[in-house]
Every structure is written in structure tokens, then in C-alpha cells.
Design brief:
The complex is a heterodimer of chains A (about 375) and B (about 325). With about 375 residues, chain A is of the alpha/beta class. Chain A is about 40% helix and about 10% strand. Chain B has about 325 residues and is of the alpha/beta class. Chain B has 2 domains: about 1-175, Rossmann fold (3-Layer(aba) Sandwich), CATH 3.40.50; about 190-320, Rossmann fold (3-Layer(aba) Sandwich), CATH 3.40.50. Chain B has helices at about 1-15, 40-45, 55-65, 85-95, 95-100, 130-135, 145-160, 205-220, 240-250, 265-275, 295-305, 305-315; strands at about 20-25, 50, 70-75, 110-115, 140, 165-170, 190-195, 200-205, 225-230, 230-235, 250-255, 285. Chain B is built from 12 helices and 12 strands. The chains are: A alpha/beta (about 375), B alpha/beta (about 325). The structure holds thiamine diphosphate (TPP) and magnesium ion (MG).
Amino acid sequence: MNRDEAFGLYKQMLLIRRFEERCAQLYVEGRIGGFLHLYIGQEAVGVGAMSVMRPDDYLIAYYRDHGYALARGTDPRLLLAELCGKFTGISRGKGGSMHFYDVARGNFGGDGIVGGHLPLAAGIGYGIRLRNTDQVCLCFFGDGAVNEGAFHEALNVSALWDLPVVYIIENNRYGMGTSIDRASSVKDLYQRASAYGIPRREINGMDLLAVRNAVTEAIERARTEKRPTLLEADTYRYRGHSMSDPGKYRTKEEVEEMMKSDPILLWGKRLLEQERFTQADLDAVDKEVLARMDETVAFVEASPDPPVESMYEDVYVRSPYINMKAAEKDPAWRAAIREDRVPPALPPPAPAAAPAAAPAAPNPAEATVQATAKVGS
Amino acid sequence: MRDALNQAMREEMARDPSVFILGEEVGAYQGAYKVTQGLLAQFGEWRVRDTPIAEEAIAGVAVGAAFIGLRPIAEMMTFNFSLLALDMIINHAAKYRYMSGGQVRCPMVMRGPSGAAAQVAAQHSQAFESIYAYVPGLVVAMPSTPKDAKGMLKSAIRDDNPVIFMENEVLYNLKGEVPEEEYHIPLGLAEVKRPGRDVTIVAWSRPCVTALAAATKLAEEGIDVEVVDPRTLRPLDEDLIFESVRKTGRCVVVEEGWRIAGFGAEISDRVQRECFDALDAPVIRVTSEDVPMPYAKTLEKAYLPQPEKIIDAVHRVMYR
Ligand SMILES: Cc1ncc(C[n+]2csc(CCOP(=O)(O)OP(=O)(O)O)c2C)c(N)n1
Ligand SMILES: [Mg+2]
């Protein structure tokens, strides 16, 4: 990895962090609704993994999905608009936080059913084999998903049929309020792959480089040998399970301890010590990211709500094999179109009015501590 | 019927390399009900995939492969076991297009036998079309003749939506004419299976065959029954049903499912609302009895909609 690339990954992690901090704020203000599951603390997993994927590879993930979409290059304006239920959102205001898809970038999104997308990842892998290409599919999920039957069915067929899928557990130690000690008979979750003869590895999910290396190796195995891998990335979410969770099941000390190995702090340290960047460089990029968030919010504020008629769209695909005369008595069939929709490529944002005397950007980890205290109380 | 289904898959697989089949015993065993006979030899294991007994994986692999442009046919050994795959169908196949704002499509078919067979008791004799027909995002097709089976399965495979294609084990041996030439029958197209003047019976799948038998007996008493087969429950070709009821003024709806919240209730609701002025009697439904399917032959017979029950219902709407 060269110096610019290392810096670029720092910026990606920071973008995810700042994006989500802004989301938390907007949620408290009532502008984002529903379930909002923040990825804060886990950024190195998604960013590290995305950074070694090819543009034509696929990913499918669970509902804690903001980081993947941002790291894969989806415009944050489309994502925040989705969170705010706007018509300009990536899913036209029909998905929300848990359902960020960007098919043009091979992103089959966020799934709201714990473990539910693992068989789908196997299916994408099967499709790749059938088409005989050298693509791979990455599949992200939480530690809770390994206890679902779908996990086992998916792993078994992936090994049985040699499917090019990399399964990545984001082990943040809890599924909602239940720690893995209370949910899994085996605490080393990656060892579950041994039941299926699948290569497996545990990695430090706070360490971007460790994630990159392990995912690179797993992708290589999938691409060339067509074999699946199960990776367990040990990580931590600083916030509650979702915004409504005050996190009473764990101590403040535990959270603070984990924040010492914050992935952004660690990577920033590396940039300073090994890549000859200066604190001023890091501060400047933070300012840039914060400004980008201001532009993003401005875009969302100027975006329309979805028209009510759009509710009927995107249920079906219009089809010559359906008797449309009968079907069209239903509004969902009337509104069906033949094509798939492609989210727009937005023009670069208008240079934002310089944020009035922007406050010195706080240390990202500290900022999170403050926000946690505020939101959690 | 079995051959018609087999031909549909064989022809579509030859026509389009993105079509593949997966399911329990579909390959080497030649199909639990021999519907996929010979396909493995012709198309190879990647296109006719024997799976472990893992319904969630069968359906989920189909959904995932469909997302990237393949056209999977997931065979359920019977639809009773599709309950283990319901999450894949209802939460995934039927939802991703919507939740992605139209970015994703899921051109898959889930097919297999549904309904009662012969004395296989409560877990193996269920009619679940009402569950699937309830869900927006799905298409639900249920043919009752070999011709319909072939033509509709071809449409189901080519269609770009997730199609639940429910066959019937008892009908697998049903004989019937199938056109020589290439054809398909669009989904959402009902058909009058027997024209008549006095009473409309709406019935699909095996009950449609039962209704035709009842109609023959009723003809002997001088009652001229029209049998309408919707063939597809979602989308429902309601106009043909209304047209028939407006002509006859009387309507009986027959289904193999249970009475409460059964799909027949949906049809009755629409008929009474849209044909209110034309009706000379309330719509009457014939369903299976509201209990789990019993094993004993006598009880099984009493449980299902039999010609006698249909005849009785027709008498009632005719006030005879
Ligand atoms: C099948 C299913 N059961 C329950 C839920 C409710 N639920 C949503 S997230 C969650 C916890 C999952 O924890 P984990 O897999 O560890 O992921 P994390 O949220 O910790 O990232 C639960 C129980 C669900 N969405 N799906
Ligand atoms: Mg967890």
C-alpha cells in the first residue's frame, strides 16, 4: 500500500465516522426515523475489506450497513437522503438505514433479517461459478448471525460446491444486549467453520492492515481456488445497538477501554509515525470531511419527500409474460417498469459556504465519547 | 402433467443458459416425483444441482443467483417444506426490489407439488397458496391441466419476478393435450374450463378437476355449471370471474386450503362487491375442513372438497 492509499483509507474511515455522528444528531432531532444502527468503532472492518475488493466483485451485508456503502464509493448525499426518507435517497426513501443498496457498485445491501442474507451470498457465489467468472462475493454479518440456521446452511453449501464467498463476522461482542458468552456455546466464532471444513481465521478488526491482509488472502482463495473462507473480525461498537439502546448491559469502563484501540486513532498514528504525515494533514482532512457532511445535509434539506404515488413503484418488474390487462387493476402492477433503476450520479456539490468559523475538529474518538454520553443518557 | 412440466424446463434450459434447477433429489434420483427426469444427463451438475436437505439454502441460493442475473428454478420436494424457506421468499425475494428502490430484480421460480397427496397426514398435505398469495412482490401460479402447466411454467421461468409455481402431486399423472408447437400462457390469465349458464364455480389446481367432475354430475340433473379456473392467484384475472358471475348470477368458490383467510375468501369478497346486483344468492365457499389433515382414508376423504360437497353447494346457491 502506498502513502496516498493509506491516507485515502484514513479519510474513508473518518467519512464514515463523521457521517454517522451527523446521523445520530439528525436522529435525535427527529429527522431520521426507525432503527439506526451505527457502525462507529467498526470502521476498519468494512474499509479494510472494501479496499481489497475489485470493482466487479459483489458484497451483501447486514443492517449495520452505512460503512460498506460509503467505503464502496456511494455518494453520501444519496445515503443521507435515504436516511431522511427523501425521494433522492439511494432507495427512493423505501429502505432507510438498514437497506443501502448500490447495485452498480455490486452492493446488494443491507439485510434486516439476522443471518437472512447468508444463503443469498452463497447464491451470488453459485451464480459466479455458473457464469464462470473470477468474481467473488463478500458477506458481512454480526456475531448474532452465527446462531441462526441460515448461517449453517449457507456455510455447508458454500464448502460443498466450492463457492467464491468470503464470510466476515463482525464480532462486536454483543447481539443487542446479549453478549456472545450468553449466546454461543463456542466462544471462538471462527471455529464454527471447522464443522464445514472451511478455512478460517480470527483477526483484529480494529487494525485496518490486519483486516486488509486477511481479506486479501481470503479473496485470493475465492478467486483462484473457488473456496469460501470464514473470517472473524474482533471489533466493538461504541454506541448502543441502535439509537434507542442506552447500553445498560455493559460498563462504561469496558467501552472506554475498547475506545483506546479506536481504528481511526490507530491508523492516524500509523500515518504520523510511518508515513510521514503531520497532525496538520490529519486535521485538514477532517475539516474537509466535515465540510462534505455540511454539503450532504444541505443536499438532503433541499430534497423532496417521495410523492405518495411512488409507494406503488418498485414492487414488480413489468413483464411480457404477465397478462398486464388483468394485473394492472392493481396499482403496484400499473406502476411497474421494465428496467431496473439506477441511482443518479449527482453533480459535484456546489462549494459550500465556508462553515462559519468551524470549531477545531475534535479528536474523533473523544467526539464519540461525548456523543455516547449525550445520546445514551 | 409430469411430462409437460419436464418439457417446459428442458426447453427453457436449452433456450437460455442462465436457467438452472436446484433442489433435493432433482438430479441423480431424477426428481422425488420424477418431474426433473433426464435433465441432469442433458445439462450437467451445475445446471441441475442436487442439494442437501436445506430448504432455506435452496431458496436463498436461488434468490442470490437471481440477483446477479441467473434464472433459478428452486424445487421444493413439496411445498410443505417451503415453510423452512419462507424467510427467503417473503423477506428477501419479495422485498429486495422494493427496499432497493427498484435496483434489484429476482427472476426466480420456486416450484413443486402442493396440497394433499394420499394418506400422508397433517404435515405432508397442506395447501399453502393463501400464504404466498398474501404477499405483494410475488406471483402465484397454480395450473390444473398439462397444457396450462407447460405454458405457464415457461412464462414463470421467463418472467422477471419471483414466481411461486404450485403443482399438485395428485395431478402429476393427469393426461391431457399439449400443443406440439412452441407456446406459453401468460400468468394472470384465467380460463373458462367448462362453459355453462346456471352457476359459476371458481376453482384452481386439483379442486378445479374436482369441480369439473361435479359439473358433469350436475349436468345430469339439468344444472349447467360454468367452471372458471383463475390459474394464477396473484395477479388475479378477476374480470373473467365477474363476467361469468354476471351471466350466471350464482357463484361457488372451491379451494383445497382452510376456510379462514383462505384465498377463496378474497375471491368471494371481490365477487360480492363487484357483482352485487347480478347475484341471486350469496357466494358459497367449499374448502377443506378446519382441522389438520387426518391420516385414515375415510377421514381424508371427508376432509377434502369432494364432488358431493361441491354439488351440495351448487344446490344451495340455486335454492334447491
Ligand atoms: C431473524 C431476526 N431475529 C431478530 C432480529 C432483531 N435483531 C436485530 S439486530 C439483532 C442483534 C444482532 O446482533 P449481531 O448479529 O451481533 O449484530 P450487531 O447488531 O451486533 O452488529 C437482533 C436480535 C432480526 N432483525 N432478525
Ligand atoms: Mg454483535
